[in-house]
Amino acid sequence: MEKPPEPLDQVQLNEIYYNCTECKSCIEIISIDEKECYIEFKCINNNHQKKMPIKEYINKMHLYTDKNINNDICINHNKKYETYCAECNCHLCKECLKQREHINHAKNSIIEIQPSKKELDIIQKIINFYDIKKEKLLNEKYKKEGELKNKLKQYKNQISVNKELQIKENENNKIEE
Asked: Which is it for the CA torsion 66, 19, 21, 35, positive or negative?
């Protein structure tokens, strides 16, 4: 089995905003079935839990895409987020923290949980690996389809030739009788 390539030195990520197909909330991906092409996810804010084909998910998710979901600036204070409140499922800037509304809540420091450059490079390399693999499979599919069409055409031609021979043989048998 092929192994994914080693990480790249530079990474350029597209602006992709993954969200619930029912609302604008972020999602927690529970599982991805690559073989059957299914994704199972849970909506963080509204607890929608869905399992659907990945293609359907991508089509539906675009209905609720909100660039502010992945924005790292607080909309209330226009400052960069510092932590994430796990109990309220929201990001907090320094000003939000000063308000002490989340004082005893479980929180994570954004800087500790955000992916490193190295991790992003590895993920991008894996994406590239599967893009190439997908392209190879598509090319193989088209090649096989062409081969099958050619064989079908040959079989049809052979059947036509056999039919003509049978008709001639039947005509010869009638003449002899």
From this structure: positive
Count Cα neighbours of 23 within 13 Å in the Cβ-side half-sphere: 12
Mean pLDDT of the chain: 83
Residue 14 predicted with pLDDT over 60: no
Task: Give 69-94 pLDDT, tens digit per residue.
Answer: 556 788 788 898 889 888 887 889 99
Residue with tokens 């924005």: 71
Strand partners, 93: 81
Task: Give how far Cα 125 sits from Cα of 3, 114, 115, 132, Å.
Answer: 11, 18, 15, 11
Instruction: Measure the CA–CA gap between 60 and 131, rounded to whole angstroms.
Output: 22
pTM, two decimal places: 0.42
User: Of the candidates 2, 8, 3, which has an alpha carbon nearest to the alpha carbon of residue 122?
Assistant: 8
Question: CA 54 from chain center: how many Å?
Answer: 6
